[in-house]
Amino acid sequence: MLYSQELLKPDGRQLTLYSRYPIAEGITPPSPSNEPIAANPHLRWHPLRGEWVAYASHRQGRTFMPPPEYNPLAPTKDPNFPTELPQGRYDVAVFDNRFPSMTVAANNPPVNIVETLPANGACEVVVFTQDPHASLGELELSHLELLLQVWGDRTRKISEHPHIQYVLPFENKGVEMGVTLQHPHGQIYAYPFVPPVPAKMLSRQQAYYQEHQKGLLQDLIQKEIEDNQRIIYLDDHAVAFVPVCARYPYEVWLATIEPVATFIDLSEPQIKSLARALKTVTLKYDGLWNRSFPYLMAWYQAPTDGKPHPEAHLHAQFYPPYRTKDRLKYLAGTELAAGMFANDALPEEKAKELQAVIVNLETPVQV
């Protein structure tokens, strides 16, 4: 069961609380500042790459690595020093980013020698839990099921805006990924176009579907299950695996077995299975070297253009920055300049390492 409550912050930003239990009325939403957000980001066209670049100079002043006692994502303890979240019984909180790269209100972009547009998108912060020390792997399965429903609810609400074409939930975890706030949280970026990476994947999926009348990722998943070398998690509705084509040594994909286009389309059994798969992957990551394991987790779904997308297949891709216990995989010459990844390890080898990590999904992790 998903309960929610929408609130308006003193600075005009939206805050939505989500819970597995009824939420008490009368919650007063705080904000670190009562000043209205005056961001007006814009887009500039990159003629050589054929893609948009966002410019949001106000982000230079965003919060950077505050001490634990000034955690802006923890519930407010002292009303004289308000944070982003109120006190109360709830599990997940979503609010408009104070330092957005895109806003639905962006307007009047500067004239330049290349095409410019207002950055009419949305940037939301998703606080996974009130516990500042937890991680996804440490949350109860029912809490993770709620989070999947939250991503669906945000996809539905954000896509109601006529400018929005694509909704991308993601989590940057760890300082190695550039995280500046250590409280467990992710973000949602909603774009006025389909960004280059999902656009390329969707183009490949569309071509495959037109030729075969079934999904490209759906077929790949079946081959991975039959090959059974790189599977990390498998049940009747969800699967997690190190893909045969992994670009990062510890890359993992997580998906429903039967394709669904977006979070909105998930059935209850699929939600439960995806929660178990998500908990398994994140616990295995943390258990690999018995420490918090950094990664980028990105969820890919169909565009929000109102059209049917039978080729799309909701799934997550995890990009961890480590190639060994103490060595990072830096993106350099061939990756950044040429766009071709070079992997120093075979996916089969890294899959075996993750397969060997024993996890318990039912026992809450002590933090």
From TrEMBL:
<dbReference type="GO" id="GO:0008108">
    <property type="term" value="F:UDP-glucose:hexose-1-phosphate uridylyltransferase activity"/>
</dbReference>
<dbReference type="InterPro" id="IPR019779">
    <property type="entry name" value="GalP_UDPtransf1_His-AS"/>
</dbReference>
<feature type="domain" description="Galactose-1-phosphate uridyl transferase C-terminal">
    <location>
        <begin position="204"/>
        <end position="357"/>
    </location>
</feature>
<feature type="domain" description="Galactose-1-phosphate uridyl transferase N-terminal">
    <location>
        <begin position="39"/>
        <end position="195"/>
    </location>
</feature>
<dbReference type="InterPro" id="IPR005850">
    <property type="entry name" value="GalP_Utransf_C"/>
</dbReference>
<dbReference type="Pfam" id="PF01087">
    <property type="entry name" value="GalP_UDP_transf"/>
</dbReference>
<keyword id="KW-0548">Nucleotidyltransferase</keyword>
<keyword id="KW-0299">Galactose metabolism</keyword>
<protein>
    <recommendedName>
        <fullName>Galactose-1-phosphate uridylyltransferase</fullName>
        <ecNumber>2.7.7.12</ecNumber>
    </recommendedName>
</protein>
<dbReference type="InterPro" id="IPR005849">
    <property type="entry name" value="GalP_Utransf_N"/>
</dbReference>
<comment type="similarity">
    <text>Belongs to the galactose-1-phosphate uridylyltransferase type 1 family.</text>
</comment>
<keyword id="KW-0862">Zinc</keyword>
<dbReference type="InterPro" id="IPR001937">
    <property type="entry name" value="GalP_UDPtransf1"/>
</dbReference>
<keyword id="KW-0119">Carbohydrate metabolism</keyword>
<dbReference type="InterPro" id="IPR036265">
    <property type="entry name" value="HIT-like_sf"/>
</dbReference>
<keyword id="KW-0479">Metal-binding</keyword>
<keyword id="KW-0808">Transferase</keyword>
<dbReference type="Pfam" id="PF02744">
    <property type="entry name" value="GalP_UDP_tr_C"/>
</dbReference>
<comment type="pathway">
    <text>Carbohydrate metabolism; galactose metabolism.</text>
</comment>
